[in-house]
Design a protein that fits this description.
Blueprint (H helix, E strand, L loop, with lengths): L27 H6 L8 E4 L5 H9 L3 E5 L3 H11 L4 H13 L1 E2 L2 E2 H7 L2 E3 L6 E10 L7 E5 L6 E5 L2 H8 L6 H10 L7 H8 L4 H17 L5 H15 L21 E5 L1 H12 L8 E3 L11 E4 L17 E5 L5 H15 L1 H4 L13 H13 L10 E6 L4 H13 L2 E9 L4 E8 L11 H16 L3 E2 H14 L14 H4 L1 H8 L5 E4 L9 E4 L9 H15 L5 H11 L8 H11 E4 L4 E4 L5 H21 L3 E3 L4 E4 L5 E7 L8 H5 L4 E5 L4 H10 L1 H10 E5 H9 L8 H5 L10 H4 L1
Parallel strand pairs: 1-2, 1-12, 2-11, 10-11, 12-13, 23-24, 24-25
Antiparallel strand pairs: 3-4, 5-6, 6-7, 6-9, 7-8, 13-15, 14-15, 16-18, 17-18, 19-20, 21-22, 22-23
Helix pairs in contact: 2-3, 4-10, 4-11, 7-9, 9-10, 10-11, 14-15, 15-17, 16-17, 16-19, 20-21, 20-22, 21-22, 22-25, 23-27, 25-26
Length: about 750
């Protein structure tokens, strides 16, 4: 069931509406498709949540059908496939700027809404933003750059700033137009629309509706009109109170203003949006939907509606596979999409997502049911053994449970899994079954417990809740044991198995929790009896990275990452941070080529010679201090009475996975190359048991520290322990304490 995790690269250009789009790594979809079906296959994305996924699938040679019910996501997809040129965006912005407004131009009219006085010279300046407390009646801070004296920074607001903010109320004409466009008088959703607009400062709505009205009057031709709409869409996103200060919520899920938020200058937001929409990459052919006409390989066909409505428009089995990014519940995005679509394209365009205005709460049980309903509606399009592959870039335990329950309930058997817990990434694979599912079995708790124990034994080190939870749930899904739980009235597996999961992972005779809080999702899980566990995952990753680097003259980070993921699939997939720590420990990055190259001193022959030199130094040093020196690896120093005083283990790698065996012989001093110091620190961060053991029965010192001790003339047997202790694995220069 374990599958290779399709590693990608962190997106260097996030693109428009990035905080609401699934944070899918660049190349991840392409890598996933490399082992999924054949080039030229038709794949269906039934949820249309990720524009990046569809574009990468088409560039990988697949024919792609995307069901995109959300007009905002559909707009982003269209312009990720056909990027708007920077020149077109700049021209659209210039056309808006020059549009007449109250005997002036639109740009200075909007900028004047954000005028303030410079705290240094007193001249007028244009604020980039104001900072509000959610319950305050006016802004408390202003950020600006003065064009007269170049003063820049954040200053307290003035009475004049408060007065200008109060000029725009919730009862103005622009407010009425904004509300009318979403839900006119008499519309049952009007009160919900009012609640949605409440997350916008009144001045922001005034600016946005003024720009939207002017855009409609300009009657621009495509692609200029779409470029202007793109800029305004980003302005709508930037201008609401979901942007916290100073950092705020990177990915808001609920439509609630941040406790302290930024009121962004709307015109400045339009200017910045040019870079967001001028995306890189060649165009991908995009077809408007036409019933019965299937896209060619390399082409995206966008269906503007829910996937269930494709029934009757596609023959059974036309889509060779389902390939998707699973949508995560996001009340903020879905509600704002209804508002934005109405403002930009009218109420008819917003109608498909208008229902989002009413819903205030989405939980995982609801989401499992929604996924099950959506997938079950595709049954007439599917044939037996149709594969499905879902990427989950925002995975957490509840989301994984909802996905597994939803797919199982819709007739899919789980066939593959891979997780990166620290980065909240998962990949799940299924096959559609038309045959009757297996009968339900008893003993679900025991099955979950066994699966979680096996996952920890394989990893060989403590793991976060997502790992043990996913191991337990995926084992049930692989046996199709979640589907029967839907049959009881008002039943939902996410609810039905919540206490079972907690009981399974709460077995104290089997599991211990490290650094845990009250909730089961906190801390790390480990085995009460770790005997039989494999070599720690971190140790294996280090060996893999070192081996890969020694076999090649230069590799990119993603090339190394993919080789590691291929060797450690499924539940053992390591996190990218660990892979990066191993890279930095053994290699140097070349800015010009973007490649990592093994350091000369870390070539196998050089490092072996280095280790041999350190062993000779330790033997000489021990004899010089009056100890009886024995052994080759480890090296032991005994006093005159025969009692063992020190044990030194000279290592070329940071791997300390044999610490349990070493502990039986007493404290051990591990001697490592200096380049391993940060890697040891990272291993200690990941594994509290390693950190605790080193604090009690181990010590780590660097090669160079042994060389310095060998040259120290004042070193004696009675001050050796003190001298050894001044070289912890963190980056510090022991030369200073020695002096």
């Amino acid at each position: 069931m374990d599958m290779v995790f399709p590693a990608g690269r962190s997106a260097h250009l996030a693109g428009p509406l990035a905080r609401f789009m699934p944070p899918l790594d660049e190349g991840m979809a392409t890598e996933a498709l490399a082992g999924f079906g054949e080039k030229g296959d038709l794949v269906l994305d039934p949820f249309g949540a990720s524009p990046r996924l569809a574009v990468e699938a088409a560039r990988a040679g697949r024919a792609v059908i995307v069901a995109a019910n959300n007009p905002v996501t559909r707009f982003v997809l269209r312009h990720r496939a056909r990027p708007l040129a920077a020149a077109t965006l700049q021209t659209a912005l210039a056309r808006l700027a020059a549009a007449p407004k109250d005997h002036a131009r639109l740009e200075p009219f909007i900028l004047d809404l954000y005028r303030t006085e410079c705290a240094r010279c007193g001249e007028m300046a244009i604020a980039d933003y104001f900072v509000w407390e959610r319950e305050a009646e006016g802004p408390i801070l202003r950020g600006y750059v003065c064009d007269h004296c170049t003063h820049a920074g954040e200053d307290p607001t003035t009475e004049a700033d408060w007065a200008r903010a109060r000029e725009h109320s919730r009862r103005g004409l622009q407010q009425a137009l904004a509300l009318e466009q979403v839900a006119p008088a008499g519309d049952p959703d009007r009160q919900h629309a009012e609640a949605a607009l409440a997350v916008y400062p009144a001045r922001a709505i005034y600016a946005l509706i003024s720009i939207a009205s002017k855009l409609e009057q300009l009657d621009l031709e495509p692609p200029m009109a779409e470029a202007a709409q793109a800029l305004l869409l980003s302005g709508c996103d930037a201008a609401n109170a979901l942007w916290g200060h100073p950092e705020g919520r990177a990915r808001p899920l609920a439509l609630v203003a941040s406790p302290r938020y930024r009121e962004i200058n709307v015109w400045r937001a339009l200017e910045r949006a040019v870079d967001d929409w001028a995306m890189e990459g060649p165009e991908v052919p995009l077809d408007d939907w036409e019933a019965g006409r299937l896209p060619m390989p390399g082409v995206i066909a966008v269906y503007p509606g829910p996937a269930r409505d494709l029934v009757g428009q596609l023959p059974p089995g036309a889509a060779r596979a389902l390939f998707t990014v699973l949508p995560r519940p996001n009340q903020a995005y879905w509600t704002l999409s209804a508002v934005w679509a109405a403002w930009l394209w009218g109420r008819a365009a917003a109608a498909p997502v208008k229902v989002a205005l009413r819903r205030r709460r989405y939980d995982w049980a609801w989401h499992a049911g929604a996924l099950r309903t959506a997938l079950a509606g595709l049954a007439p399009l599917l044939i037996s053994e149709t594969p499905a592959l879902a990427l989950m870039p925002e995975a957490e335990a509840g989301f994984v449970a909802a996905a597994l329950a939803g797919f199982d309930g819709a007739g899919f058997r789980l066939t593959g899994r891979a997780l990166r817990a620290d980065e909240s990434q998962a990949v799940l694979a299924w096959r559609y079954e038309t045959a009757a599912r297996p009968a339900p079995r008893s003993g679900m708790q025991d099955q979950m417990t066994v699966a979680a124990v096996e996952a920890l034994r394989r990893r060989g080190e403590p793991a976060p809740y997502l790992i043990v939870h996913a191991a337990a749930w995926s084992d049930l899904a692989n046996d199709r044991q979640l589907a029967p739980l839907w049959e009881a009235e008002d039943a939902n597996p996410v609810v039905a198995l919540s206490t079972t999961t907690e009981a399974a992972l709460g077995e104290r005779r089997l599991f211990v929790r490290l650094g845990a809080g009250a909730e089961p999702e906190t801390g790390l899980y480990w085995l009460a009896d770790p005997s039989g566990a494999g070599l720690p995952l971190a140790d294996r990753v280090e060996a893999l990275v070192a081996g890969v680097l020694r076999e090649a003259e230069g590799l990119s980070e993603v090339q190394v990452d993919r080789r590691v993921c291929a060797a450690l699939p499924g539940i053992e997939t390591p996190d990218r941070r660990l892979v990066q720590a191993c890279l930095r420990s053994y290699a140097e990055y070349e800015q010009a080529t973007g490649l990592w190259r093994l350091r000369e001193e870390d070539r196998a022959e050089a490092r072996a010679a280095d280790a041999a030199e350190i062993r000779d130094l330790l033997r000489d040093l021990g004899a010089r201090l009056g100890f009886v020196v024995q052994g080759g690896e480890p090296i032991t120093w005994s006093d005159a009475g025969g009692s063992q005083a020190y044990t030194f283990s000279v290592r070329e790698q940071a791997a300390l996975g044999d610490r349990a065996r070493a502990a039986q012989a007493g404290p051990v001093t591990f001697v490592l190359p200096g380049g391993r110091a940060a890697l040891v620190a990272e291993m200690m961060r990941r594994d509290p048991t390693l950190r605790d053991w080193l604090a009690q029965a181990g010590r780590v010192v660097k090669f160079r520290h042994i060389r310095r001790l060998g040259a120290e003339t004042t070193l004696r047997a009675d001050n050796l322990a003190e001298r050894l202790a001044i070289d912890p694995p963190e980056h510090r220069d022991p030369q200073l304490p020695l002096l």
